[in-house]
């Protein structure tokens, strides 16, 4: 269920409370919630995931992303969360796609090459083509 993008970053569809224990067993030290609250009736709330993460000794941060797209504050928040994490990270949303796209934008903003990011995402089953131009722009700013 956790799709490996790098040795330290994983993306996933909506996680459950039992998945927090699985994340702990996998060495995850930070869970990033990229899903807005009440996006669907069947999702586990961020507060419940945050409480389970805290009980398991896993840090938690919410950076919600709607289907409207990405704002600069979200890219910055994701980059900061990644840079300040102490160990492996699991980011989740409805399908894992928004988490993967935001990860790629955050890494491009730090100077990672879009082609490398695209390959890593593809290996995990995700397509970054919808944010290709944004990755190029963000990487250009980082140089």
Task: Kindly describe this structure.
- It is a single chain.
- The mean pLDDT is 96.
- With 143 residues, the protein is an alpha/beta fold.
Count of helices? 6
Alpha carbon gap, first and last residue: 35 Å
Number of strands: 5
* Second-tier CATH architecture: Alpha-Beta Complex
Q: What is the domain total for the residues? A: 1
Q: How much of the polypeptide forms β-strand, as a percent range?
A: 5-15%
Category by helix and strand content: alpha/beta
Low-confidence stretches: none
CATH topology: Protein-Tyrosine Phosphatase, Chain A
Could you list some keywords that capture this structure?
143 residues; alpha/beta; Protein-Tyrosine Phosphatase, Chain A; 5-stranded mixed beta sheet; 6 helices; globular
Topology, please?
Blueprint: E1 3-4, E2 9-12, H1 17-25, E3 28-33, H2 46-56, E4 59-62, H3 72-84, E5 88-92, H4 97-109, H5 114-123, H6 132-142
Parallel strand pairs: 2-5, 3-4, 3-5
Antiparallel strand pairs: 1-2
Helix pairs in contact: 1-2, 3-4, 4-5, 4-6
């Amino acid at each position: 269920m956790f799709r490996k993008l790098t040795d330290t970053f994983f993306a996933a569809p909506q996680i459950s409370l039992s998945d927090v224990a699985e994340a702990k067993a996998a060495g995850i030290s930070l869970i990033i919630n990229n899903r807005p609250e009440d996006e669907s009736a069947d999702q586990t709330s961020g507060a419940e995931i945050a409480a389970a993460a805290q009980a398991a000794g896993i840090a938690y941060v919410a950076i919600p992303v709607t289907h409207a797209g990405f704002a600069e504050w979200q890219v910055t928040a994701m980059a900061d969360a990644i840079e300040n994490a102490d160990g492996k990270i699991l980011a989740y949303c409805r399908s894992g796609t928004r988490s993967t796209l935001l990860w790629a934008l955050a890494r491009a903003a730090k100077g990672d090459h879009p082609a490398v990011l695209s390959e890593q995402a593809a290996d995990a089953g995700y397509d970054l083509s919808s944010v290709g131009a944004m990755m190029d722009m963000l990487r250009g700013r980082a140089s």
